Amino acid sequence: MTKDHSKVFLFIDDEKQPIAELETPIVFNFDTTKLTDGEHILKIVSKAMSGREGIRNINFTVRNGPSISVEGLSENDIVDGSLPLMINAHDKGMSKSFVIEGSETPQTIPVWVWVLIMIIAAWSAYYFITEYSNGIF
Asked: E strands within the chain?
């Protein structure tokens, strides 16, 4: 009794040669370090012993390079004149340990945080002034 194992061929983007030809079921270690950063398509073509064929495309984005952060300019901004930009690039390395994303990238404090701090400070000042005038302190 023979088992009916399908073969799968893995292609990246529009390449004519597969990066792997495997017999199913398989666990495959897909090394993205050999790909350029950006959008790619993994095309999986399966061929059964009966001759039937199946195709599946999976879109994915590779970001192996250093993380780049830009303060002062966002996607689709309309700009005029001179812009002060803060640009930083940080490589996460190849460690298998936990690294907080962007932990080495300095960032400005968002406006909503400053507004929240000012509201808390104003409420605290109001509380102390009203309680002091009532003789509690």
From this structure: 7-12, 20-23, 38-47, 53-62, 67-71, 86-90
More confident call, 44 vs 134: 44
Q: Are strands 20-23 and 7-12 parallel, antiparallel or unpaired?
A: antiparallel
Domain limits for position 55? 7-62
Quote the number of domains for the chain: 2
pTM, to two decimals: 0.54
111, part of any domain = yes
Q: Which residue has the tokens 């993380």?
A: 67
On whether the CB atoms of residues 86 and 106 are closer than 8 A, the answer is: yes
> Higher confidence at residue 81 or residue 107?
81
88-110 mean pLDDT: 61
